[in-house]
Write a structure and sequence with these properties.
Blueprint: E1 12-15, H1 33-53, E2 58-65, H2 71-74, H3 87-93, H4 104-116, E3 124-127, H5 131-168, H6 177-186, H7 195-203, H8 209-233, H9 251-274, H10 283-301, H11 308-317, H12 327-348, H13 363-378
Parallel strand pairs: 1-2, 2-3
Helix pairs in contact: 5-6, 5-8, 6-10, 7-8, 7-9, 7-12, 8-11, 9-10, 9-12
Length: 379
Amino acid sequence: MDPPDDDNEFLAEILLTPRTTVSGIMRHAQGHFSYNTAKGATVHLTKLMSAEFQKAGIRVNSIAPGYFPSEMTAKKSDERQKSHVPEEKIQDKGHVPLARPGRETEMGMSVLYLAKNQYVNGEIIAVDGGVLNVLAGRQDFVAATGEFVGTFWFLFFGYAGHLMVLDETATTGNLGPSTIIYVSLAWISGGFFNPAVTFGLSLCGRLPWQRTAVFVPTQMLACITAGAVVKVLFPGDIARINTTLAPGVNVSQGLFAEMFFTSYLVFVVLMLAVEKSRDTFIAPLGIGLALFVAEIPGVYFTGGSLNPARSFGCAVAAPSFPGYHWIYWLGPALGAAIAAGYYRFVKMCHYEEVNPGQDASNSEEFIARSNSGRETSEA
């Protein structure tokens, strides 16, 4: 490199070109977890080295190449140590926009850019021909299909079970305690397929807003589909399973009840499923039980929505919208915001230090972690 022109420039540049690839950046295993994990480590290494070495006046950047000719991609090289990848091989992959491998000149220009630009430090430049954009869109599509299927099945069985309970108790003319329990059980599995939960995950920074923009319309389409299928398949008036307020409950009370019910559910989702611990594998059980507890008062007083999709799907299928239908959107949204806000608060306060031995596997480890946490707090 040329010597710096003044004291405000870095003295040297480290470029980690051969060690990083786009596999370390993408959110897709590509069938080889260990390779992508190793490349992800080099991405993190670039950031760590950049932060430390800049104190000595050294910049650290890296290039994450896509499909370029090499002995790894071509499996061989010629006598000049040059490799060749046929364009047909790249075209067969189906996710390279230019439908060809990268060229030496394109890599060279990237190297010169990072080598000469003193104002770039700690960056990982993807030279991939747009592969990451394609794979990101494909991942969103696959995730959206899963969200549609999950939301559809949750609401299909929820609507059908709810309708069955109401038909069985039609002769009594009232919603007795046992009926409320049965209806609550019909909705016990649906903690995740919920626009309010999706909204809360994005508010607390655990789900990209791009995913939320995809998931919420998908969930609404699924709820309409589920409502239509239940209406066609089963006898009974689907309008009867609309979420409506009980006699004596005004709109304001219904709004805030839905807000508190939903804040409870969303916070449980955040602490059991989003926060990772040794008990995360049973998070669905805890979330289902939390939803069941919220539904016991909710089913009677507000219809127990806690989920805009649950209220919207059957209302569209009926079609029958109560004049206060909006509370089943605003209430859950406010509840999700409260849960996300408190989640951020406890994370900021390092809640795990309050009970440092909660994940201990034995009594000795519990005592050791507890003592460590006590020493930290005293310090």
